[in-house]
Amino acid sequence: MKNKLSVALLAGIALSATSCASILTGTKDRITFNSTPEGAKVFHKGIEKCTTPCTAEIPRSLSKQMVTFEKEGFNNKEIKLTKTFNPVSLVNILLGGAIGVGIDAATGSLTKYSPKEYNVELEQKN
Known about the structure:
The protein is α+β, with helices and mostly antiparallel strands. It has one domain (19-121). The protein has 4 helices and 9 strands, in the order ααβββββββααββ. It has helices at residues 2-17, 20-25, 90-95, 98-107, and strands spanning 28-36, 41-44, 47-51, 54-59, 65-70, 77-81, 83-85, 111-113, 117-121. The strands form 3 sheets. Strands 3-2-5-6 form a 4-stranded antiparallel sheet, with no helix packed on it. Strands 4-1-9 form a 3-stranded mixed sheet, with no helix packed on it. The radius of gyration is 20 Å and the shape is elongated. The termini are far apart.
C-alpha cells in the first residue's frame, strides 16, 4: 500500500511539473518565406535566417515577433509574425500543472506561429 501511494505521489508530481506544449510541440516553428523578387535575406532579431525562397526555424515567444526582408536595390520590408493559441498547452491547464504552464509561457509554447508561410512583395528603390 505504501509503495502504491509513493508511486501515485511521484506520478502526480511528474505530471504537474511537465511542460506538455514545450515537450510535445517544441519551442520553435518552421516557417517558409517567399519574396518577389526572390533572393531577399530574411532577418529575425537582427540575425540572418535564410535567403528566399526558404524555410527557417523561428523560436516561439509570447512577445511580438518581426522579420525583415532585405534585398539590394529594394526597400526593406518588415512583417509581424502572427500567432495562435497552442491547444496542446491545455493539457497542463487541465491537469493543474502550474509549473508546466509557467515553463510553456517562458518558452513561448503557449502559442504557435500561424500561418507557416509568408509571401512578401518588395518595392524597388527609386
